Amino acid sequence: MIRAVIFDFNGVLVDDESVHCALFCEVLATEGVTLTDALYHEKYLGFDDRECFETAMLDAGLTIDRDQIDAMIARKAVRYFEVAEQGLRFFPRAAESIAGLAERWPLAINSGALRPEIEFSLNKMGVRDRVRAIVSAEDSTKGKPDPMGYLLALGELRKEPGLADLPASTCLVFEDSLAGIISAKGAGMKTVGVAQTYSETELAGAGADAIIADLNHLTPEWIDRMFGAVEQRNEH
Q1: What ranges make up the beta strands (E) of 163-214?
Q2: Domains in the chain, CATH or no CATH each
Q3: pTM of structure
């Protein structure tokens, strides 16, 4: 029985993976590090900003310190909002999916994005009030594929009325990245791979319990068919 739903953000709801890749490349270039689209997709996609910058710098044989990485994260954040103000792209039916599922289950976001970026996008979609909890890069000291973010999301959901005993196994996660699938499975949750970034074969190989091509047919009824009927409806 599914009792809660958790969405990843970038690559599932917001079509901005290419934006993040371009900004990582841009900021790293100022530090003398070259990051290609192919390498980002192969190794760094799914990392939060800190992990991506730290790993890329270390991979390039450079030393790092926290102040330097903090400054790089800040520069990227400024550039992200410059791009976002020009217009973000959201995947078809992203807002409708959040609104529809939130009528049936408490809904959370777990993302390696910064909280202001998530809040900005949810407000743009008009669904901020449908999301009960947000776990962002600022909240977790370990990024995906570590399960920490999803365990934190579980803890936040357990603060909701009637959910103090919420088992991880009754949480359904929607993820587009391989690291994200591994992270959610490591937290003991059920996962749906959304094949908007990686192929269905790759997502299945990472352990996804089910796979959908996109959000176009994501409804509470689809979840009922795939994972069993809900035990009870949750008040929104």
Answers
A1: 171-175, 190-194, 210-212
A2: 4-15+89-227 (3.40.50.1000), 17-85 (1.10.150.240)
A3: 0.84
Count of alpha carbons within 13 Å of 38, Cβ hemisphere only? Answer: 0
- Position 126: which residue type? G
Residue 6's H or E segment, with its range, is: strand 4-7
Per-residue model confidence (pLDDT) at position 229 = 54
- What is the overall mean pLDDT for the chain? 93
What distances in angstroms separate CA 208 from CA 149, 197, 203, one per listed residue?
17, 14, 6
Tokens 């689809």 map to which residue?
222
Report the alpha-carbon distance of residue 118 to residue 130 in Å, rounded. 13
CA distance 107 to 153: 10
Q: Which DSSP symbol is given to 231?
A: S
3-state secondary structure 104-173: CCCEEEECCCCHHHHHHHHHHHCCHHHCCEEECCCCCCCCCCCCHHHHHHHHHHCCCCCCCCCCHHHEEE
